[in-house]
Design brief:
about 25% strand, globular, six-stranded mixed beta sheet, four-stranded antiparallel beta sheet
């Protein structure tokens, strides 16, 4: 067995609740997950399972009610507002949304959108000439399979696939150590999905740590080293990607695997689906 990679991201006992008192809703319950340096981990679960909440807690966009998040030895959950601002400016962690229009300013050109994270870093970025910045932007566009003809266009002039690839190029311009992708291909057609997944595969083998969030097990099975399964805010199973697909243990994972049309196992029968949902209901009672 190969040695476990050194941890870059360490999530320990993370819980997040929305609201207060009896009306509070628990979105995450004691989630613990480690990502090794250069590792690609898939986080799967249906809508409402807590996937995006976990990403937002890692980024300090929601405050956890318990637990801690550590990145390369630095406890992020201990940062204050000013420290968070300084940390985000460094660009060591980048976030790619499902809808790229949430991260791309409609008034900025593609060139300015991709260059913006570099220009706000200060220090090293402040010493870069405009020509060097444009060179770096063009390099990222090429790596995403896009041409320089897009530099002067605005997000509204691009297709959905082009916008998503621009958003990923923007996230990569700072050379992040951790890239969090929240449903980055679910809104894309097959051709654009394949191009984006190919680029993410290159990043994975290039040493970037990936947290790939999706409700679609088929999209992450061939990309990631390990897969973590969230059900009702609880992490119910974590294993190697092949093991999750071939030997799922939890009934919820078995339901996801059987429902993924792109996996070799194929669809499960209606009767088997009902049986798994009955098991899932029983498991859910034990989790809550």
């Amino acid at each position: 067995m190969s040695p476990e990679p050194e941890a870059l991201l360490d999530i320990e006992g993370l819980s997040v609740s929305y609201g207060h008192g009896p009306a509070a809703t628990s979105a995450l319950r004691g989630v613990s997950l480690r990502l090794g340096r250069g590792e690609a981990v898939g986080l799967i679960g249906e809508t409402g399972s807590g996937k995006s909440t976990l990403a937002r807690a890692v980024l300090g966009l929601v405050a956890p009610s318990a637990g801690r998040v550590t990145l390369a030895g630095q406890e992020l959950t201990a940062l204050g507002p000013r420290q968070w601002k300084d940390f985000r400016r460094q660009g060591v962690v980048q976030y790619v949304f499902q809808d790229p229009l949430r991260s791309l300013d409609p008034d900025l050109t593609v060139e300015d959108s991709i260059a913006e994270p570099l220009l706000v870093r200060g220090g090293r970025a402040g010493a870069l000439s405009r020509s060097r910045v444009r060179e770096l932007v063009g390099e990222q566009l090429r790596r995403m399979g896009l041409g320089a003809v897009l530099l002067g266009r605005h997000p509204g002039e691009l297709s959905g696939g082009q916008r998503q690839r621009v958003a990923i190029a923007r996230a990569l311009i700072t050379e992040p150590r951790l890239l969090i992708l929240d449903e980055p291909v679910s809104a894309l057609d097959a051709a654009n999905r394949a191009q984006v997944l190919e680029r993410l595969s290159q990043l994975r083998h290039g040493g970037v740590t990936l947290l790939f969030i999706s409700h679609d097990l088929g999209s992450v099975a061939g990309l990631t080293d390990r897969i973590a399964v969230l059900y009702r805010g609880t992490l119910v199973e974590v294993d190697a990607a092949d093991a999750i697909v071939q030997r799922p243990w939890h009934p919820y994972t078995r339901l996801l695997v059987g429902s993924a049309p792109t996996l070799a196992r194929g669809a499960i029968s209606r009767e088997r689906r009902q049986q798994l949902r009955a098991e899932l209901s029983a498991a859910g009672e034990r989790l809550t």
